[in-house]
Amino acid sequence: MESKYLHTQKGNTMLIAMLIGICITGVSLGVAAMFIKKQAEEIPVLFTLIGISTITLLLACTYLFHSLTIEITNNELKFWFGPGVINKTVTLDEILSAKTIRTTIADGWGIHCHGNGCVYNVSGFDAVEVKLKNGKELCIGTDEPDTLTAAINSAIS
Which has more confidence, 77 or 41? Predict the structure, then answer.
């Protein structure tokens, strides 16, 4: 299927947030280990297991959310995070309109569903709001909002 639009945005915000989380976990683990007495040998093991689990989870999230790719084909709007494990496809027939918007810090990064739809983004505040014919909305983050908005509106007309 031929792409009418294809673009990948690197998730710099997500990468920085995950790196900070990994560093905080590592430092917290080290500090906790320094203050724990040898009287309770099982506690350092517990802290180590929690720390390793947390770091593993953050590394997995970094892998899954390191980028957001958006593609428009002849009949679909598709987007996926990182390697594509987390993805969404909407047929162009389902789309009513698209417009450029700005998200806020409250919208966060990643996937956040609320009220009438979901926000999908990895970095920055630029996005495209896609209104669906069923009344739902998708908010897709991008570093080229005007180009994506034009591509969606062109594809649905």
Answer: 77
